[in-house]
Each structure stands twice: as structure tokens, then as C-alpha cells.
Write a structure and sequence with these properties.
With 293 residues, this protein is α/β, with parallel strands linked by helices. It has 8 helices and 8 strands; from the N terminus they run H-E-H-E-H-E-H-E-H-H-E-E-H-H-E-E. The structure holds zinc ion (ZN).
């Protein structure tokens, strides 16, 4: 139905309406900007006593992207858990290697890397999908798996691959899928009508995740840099636990380093770490859901 009557509006009234509408819209835009881009980006050093849940595509991305930050979070009394989407059972040129053996090796490396950082193996949650195949897993099953983990551990912060600040980003396939699936699970986790079996069968309540910390960000999108200089050795040691990810292990696996190979891999790893003002840093995009963190 349309309006039945309206008195002719004076210029003053019209301008007042326009102004009110502009102020309201500006307010909404500002609220959205604060909510989505987190003007109140915290310092990692100030985060204590929180539950952090990191979703990693493979059992090495967590050390490479965020090993220093995770070490700092653990030192500050936060509880960090790592969810590993795939078992990384494909990336080897060694003709003697099998998928089953590689999965076992990568699991042991991930446990060792996280031990160095201070995350016990009880805090590692393996979803067990095959390397490179995450996009071909039943998508409903995958989002339900991640939703269940979120509802079980009720994290204050979820960390995952950056899906892109203003558009979908190109990533290698498992990374792309980990980014999108984790976001879909965050959305599902807060609504009780998604996967009601979680409450009925497992006693898990819905959970709204207050904050997201995205890694593997483009430099233009990064809004949080963590100074990892104090924990640099931990980051490097955690990275070097992944012996099979470096040469010569990629072509011919051996569980132990020669000193020469180790120092070469260490230099390679250190060269991959971002530097700002002469300090080693890790870059992130912090985003919150309407600043509830
Ligand atoms: Zn990866």
C-alpha cells in the first residue's frame, strides 16, 4: 500500500530529513567499518587467558605462518589448539615414499613443531583429509566437522587462511578451501538450527566466534604485525621440525638433518620471514564480528 496523504514538505523539513538520513547512514557505515576492519585492533602482547583455535590446511602452515605468534600466545597463558584439515600425504618426490608413510611422518613433524612452540599434541585436532583433495570432500560434511570443533572448544579467536579482504583471493586449493570452509563453519556455529544433532547427540551448544585473525595476508590487507624477535628461535626450530618439507628430504627422505642441510634450511626459512624496521614479524588481518571481542 502507498501512503494515503502527505502535506507538502518545506525546504527546511526536507533538508532536515536528508541530513538525518545522511547521519544515520554515516553511523551505519562507521559501525560496519569498525566491525569489519577492526579499528580497535589489539596488540598480541595484550591477549591473555583466551582460547585460540587455528585451522591450518596442512601440518606445517601453522608453523610457517604463525609459529612466533603462537609461541607468544602460549607464553601469555592463552590456550591454543590447532585443527589440521589434511594429512599432507602427497608432497614428496621420493620414489620410495608412500602416502601412508608420508602422513605418519608429517604427523610426527607437526607434533614436534608444536611441542617446540608449547602446544601439546593433545591440542592438535586432525580432520584427516587427503592432501590436495579438500575441495572434493563432501562440502556439507566438511563444514559440519569444523562447526563441531568450534562448538566444542568455543574459541575467543579463530585463526585461518585469509579469504580476502574485499574479494575472494587466489590460494592453492587446500588453502582456499580451508579459508572458505572455516568461515562457513563460524557462521553455522552460532545458529542452533544448523546441525541440531550437535546439541541432541553431543550436548554442544551454539557458539558465536568474537574475533578472526587471518594469516597468509596480502601486505595491503595486513593490519596487525606481531614482533616475533623474542621467540625467533622457537619459530625457526618449529619450522625445522618439518624435515620432509625441505631438501634433501623432499627428494630423498631422512628423519635427521646433516648440519650443512639444516643450516641451509634454516637460512631459507629465515629468509621467508617478513621484516619491519629491522625486526622479524608475522603479518595478519584482524577482523571482528561487530567488535564484540
Ligand atoms: Zn599448506
Amino acid at each position: 500500500m502507498g501512503r494515503t496523504s502527505s502535506a507538502p514538505a518545506t525546504c527546511e523539513v526536507v533538508w532536515s530529513r536528508i541530513l538525518n538520513s545522511m547521519v544515520t547512514r554515516l553511523g551505519i557505515c562507521l559501525a560496519l567499518a569498525v566491525g569489519l576492519y577492526g579499528q580497535s585492533v589489539p596488540r598480541i602482547e595484550d591477549i591473555r587467558g583466551k582460547a585460540v583455535l587455528l585451522f591450518t590446511p596442512h601440518p606445517d602452515d601453522d608453523a610457517f605462518c604463525c609459529g612466533g605468534t603462537l609461541a607468544r600466545l602460549v607464553q601469555q597463558g592463552n590456550t591454543v589448539r590447532v585443527v589440521i584439515y589434511t594429512n599432507d600425504d602427497k608432497g614428496s618426490y621420493d620414489p620410495e615414499m608412500t602416502s601412508e608413510r608420508l602422513a605418519r611422518i608429517r604427523k610426527a613433524e607437526e607434533e614436534e613443531g608444536n611441542r617446540v612452540i608449547g602446544i601439546p599434541k593433545e591440542n592438535l585436532i586432525w580432520l584427516g583429509h587427503h592432501d590436495g583433495m579438500l575441495e572434493y570432500v563432501d562440502s556439507r560434511r566438511l563444514v559440519e566437522q569444523a562447526t563441531e570443533v568450534i562448538r566444542r572448544y568455543r574459541p575467543d579467536i579463530v585463526m585461518t587462511v585469509d579469504p580476502g579482504a574485499d574479494s575472494v583471493r587466489w590460494h592453492k586449493s587446500d588453502h582456499r578451501m580451508a579459508a572458505m570452509n572455516t568461515l562457513d563453519a563460524i557462521r553455522a556455529a552460532e545458529w542452533h538450527l544448523y546441525f541440531p544433532n550437535h546439541k541432541l547427540q553431543l550436548g554442544l551448544e551454539p557458539w558465536r566466534v568474537p574475533a578472526y585473525l587471518f594469516f597468509y595476508v596480502l601486505e595491503k590487507d595486513a593490519n596487525l604485525y606481531v614482533d616475533i624477535e623474542p621467540v625467533l628461535e622457537k619459530k625457526l626450530e618449529a619450522g625445522l621440525a618439518h624435515v620432509s618439507q625441505f631438501e634433501p628430504g623432499v627428494h630423498k627422505y631422512s628423519p635427521t638433518w646433516t648440519p650443512a642441510d639444516k643450516s641451509k634450511a634454516r637460512a631459507e626459512l629465515e629468509g621467508m620471514i617478513l621484516r619491519r624496521n629491522g625486526r622479524h614479524v608475522e603479518a595478519f588481518r584482524w577482523a571482528t564480528d561487530f567488535n564484540q571481542f
